[in-house]
Amino acid sequence: MTPAAVSYAQTSTDAAPVQGQESSLMVIKQRTGLSELDTPAAVSVVDGDELRRASAQVNLSENLGGVPGLQIQNRQNYAQDLQLSVRGFGSRSMYGVRGVRLYVDGIPATMPDGQGQTSNIDINSVGKVEVLRGPYSALYGNASGGVVNIDSETGSQPTTLEAGTYFGSYGSWRNSVKASGATGDGTQAGDVNYTISGSRFTTHGFRDHSGTQKSLGNGKLGVRLDDVSTLTLMFNSVSVDANDPGGLTEEEYKANPRQSPRGDNFNTRKSLDQTQVGLRYQREMSENDQLTLTTWHGERHTTQYQSIPYGTQQLATYPGGVIVLERKYQGVDTRWKHDGQLGSVPVTLIGGLDYETMTERRQGFQNYNTVNGVNQFGEKGEQRRNEKNTMWNLDPYLQTSWQLTPKWTLDAGLRYSTVNFDSTDYYITSVNGDDSGSARYHKLLPMGSVNYAVTDAWNLYASAGRGFETPTINELSYRSTSGTQTGLNLGLKPATSDTFELGSKTRIGYGLLTAAVFQTNTDNELVVDSSSGGRAVYKNAGETRRRGLELGFDQQFAMDWHLKLAWTLLDATYRNETCNAKNVCTPAGNRLPGIARNMGYASLAYAPESGWHAGADIRYMSDIQANDANDAQAPSYAVTSLNSGYRFNWSQWSLDLFGRVDNLFDREYVGSVIVNEGNNRYYEPAPGRNWGGGATVTYQF
Question: Cα–Cα distance between 115 and 435 in angstroms, integer?
C-alpha cells in the first residue's frame, strides 16, 4: 500500500493487479477494493449496506463497533463530533478527530495539522469504510493511530431512486433521498456514472440543551474520457447547528445525567458550514504505467459559544468566549505507478507528491453583551482575538512491493513529511502583546513488511513503521488555561511513534479470522496538560507505550446469517514520570486516559434479500480513566441492541421497514469522557433504553 492508496484504491477503474499473488498495493479494479486477507496490515472493511442496515444512518458509531482496535463513541453532542481513536491514538481529543487520518472519496477530512472531523460523512451513500491500523498508517503522513477511508458508492445501471426516513427517541428525525445510475458499463468513451445524496437530521437530544439540526449533501460523478483515462468529480456540503450540553462532574452525573447547567446559562452552541469539491484524473500512460492526479478545495466556517465565566473573560489576555473560524483548504496529490520486473521478480513501484495547505482566520469575542448593567450571556460581544494562521505540508513518498517467491512478498516505503505553521497576530494592545510565531516540523517515515502465504487462504505477516504527529493549531494556541501566559505554545514538539506488529489472517469458508499483536513506543506524546474555561493546554509527556492484541472473526453462513466477533486488549501507559506547570506529577505506569483496556463486540444478523430480517449485538467497554492521575474513571459497561424488520420486493419497487431498541436493559453509563477537564467535568452521559424505526423505498428504472 502507498501513501495515496486511500485516495486511489476506490477509483482505479481499470488498473490491473500486479502479476502473481494479489498485490497489497491495492492496484485493483474499483469493485474489488482493499483486500482484508492479502494486505500485510491490520485492515477491516465494512460494507455500506452493513452500515445502513436497520440504523439511523446519522453517526459512524452506529455500526462500526465490530472493528478491532477502533474505539468510536457518540458523545451525544453534535457540537463536538464523535470521539474516535485507533489503538488509543485520538482519545485525548476535546472535539473532532485527532491522531487518525480521515479520507472521504480520496479527499482528506483531516487538515494539514492533523485535526479532522466526521460531520461531512454521508452514511446514506457510503460504499465502504476501510479502517487501517498499525505501521502502514505512517505512510499517510501526520497521524499515528491509523487511517479511516470512506468511499462513496459508484453509480451503475439501472438508474435507482431511493427515499428514506427514520424517527426515534428524543424527537429524532432523519429524511434522505438518493439517486444513482450510469450510462454504459464504464468502458466506452462518454460513459458516465453518478451518485447524488442528500439528508436532513433533527433531534431534541438525549440531554438538555443538546438539540441539533444537520443538512448534508454528497455527490460523485465519473466520466470515461477515452480508452485510457477517466475523470471523477466529488462534491460535499454540510451545515450543522448544534447546542453544546458540555461535560458533567461525577456529582452532577449521578444527580441527573441529562442536565446541562452551563449550557443553559451560557447558551453554548456551535454552527458549522462546510463545502468542498474535488477532481481526480486518472490515465493509463502505458501497459505498465498509470498516472493519478487528485486535487480539492474546501471552505469551512465555524462559530462556537463557550461556557466561560464572566470573571475569566475579563482577563486582558483572555480571547473571549466566542470562537469564529474561517478556513480555506486545498491540496493536490500526484502519483505514478509502474509495474515491472527485476530479473524474474515482479516489482511494483509507486511514487508521488502530496501538497496540502490551510488558511485560517481565527477571531475571539466576549460571550456576553451588557445591557442596562446586566450581562446577557449567549451573545457575541467585543472582540478579544484576531489572527491569521496558515499551515501547509509537503510530502514526497515512495513505495515498492516485491513478489520474491509465490509465497513471500516484501513491501517497503518511505515518506518525508514537512509541516509548516505560521501565525500572524492582529489583536495587539498595551496589555496583550504580539503573539505571532511560526514552527516547522520534519520527519522521515519508513515502513516495511514481509508477508508469507502459508496457503491460499492463510497469510502471516510482520511489519514495522514510524509515525509522526505534529501539534494542531488548537494545541499550539494556548500556554495556560488562565490566560496569564500569552503567546503560542511553540515549545511543543511533534510525537514520534515506532510500531511493531505480527499478524495472521485466515479465510474460513465465507469468513475471515484475523489476529494482530503490536507494540507502539511513543516519544514526546502530546497529551492534555489541563482543560478548563473552554480552553485546553497541551504538553509533551515524554515516553508512552501501547501494546495489545486484536482479534476479529467475520463469518457468513447458511446463506443469510452473518456473525461478527471482535476483541481488543490495549495496555496504554506512561513510561516515565510527567509533571505539569503546577508541578503535579503523573507517575510512570499510570494508564493513558480516554482509552479502554478491553473492548468486546458480538453481533448476529439474519438478512435475506426479502422477507423478515433481524439482528442483535452486544458491546462491552472496560473502565476508562478520565485523567492522568487515574483517580477518576468512567465505569465499564455492556449494552445490547435488537432490531427487526421486513423487506417487500415488487417488480421494480422495494420497501424496507424496520424498528430497533438500543440499550435494551436500560443501563446507565458514561458514553465518553473529556480527558483532564480542569473542573472535573469529565463525563458525557449516554442515553438509557431508546428506540427508533424507519422505512426506505427504492425504485429501479
Answer: 22
